[in-house]
Input
Amino acid sequence: MPGGAPERVPSALPADYAAVRGWPGTAIAYLATEVMRTSRSGESALLLLDVVDLLTDRKVDYAVIGALAASVHGVVRASMDADVLLSVGVREAESLEHNLKTEGFRTEMRRGDFEDPIPGLIEVRDSHDNRVDLLLGLRGVESQVFSRVIEVPFQGKSLKFIGREDFIAMKVFAGGPMDLVDASRAISAGRDSLDLDLTRRLAHKYGRDASETLERLLND
Output
């Protein structure tokens, strides 16, 4: 991709997935007691692991979304960034950003306006410009989304990815050309095991347009 190395996104993340290529031989120490996994650009998936370590320590519910989740649900595409949906309030988000900075991450918190479907976001970067976006909620997403995550082994860790039905509903809500391609491919990758009732109910929560878009994809 322009301006940097392509993201190393696997086509799927099975239990025996070897590694994201480019694992650093020596990590960069940002603090005396803290070491990050990344050693160059194009390693946002590794930065994600560092961020998830902190989320896990703080017992913050999360679900990986975006391009990495797409790879789990049968969609392969390049991306420089990793996206994570969180279950936190404003005060918790401020405390989380403080903790991220203390751990050596570069952060910026942004808040959406009244009409923005994303109430806020914490952008996390390292010195190599790898990036993880932490979404502080999403309009239309129900709290049970975090109980439907699927855990996938990755680099010796277990990452929580958004479930397929939630992934599809979120994509039809986003509605962009690539989002709809992602949703269509996720449907095709496992139509027989897809919980259609759940997927329809989730899409309905995003509104009429999302529901109608889902039905068009299901009928294709």
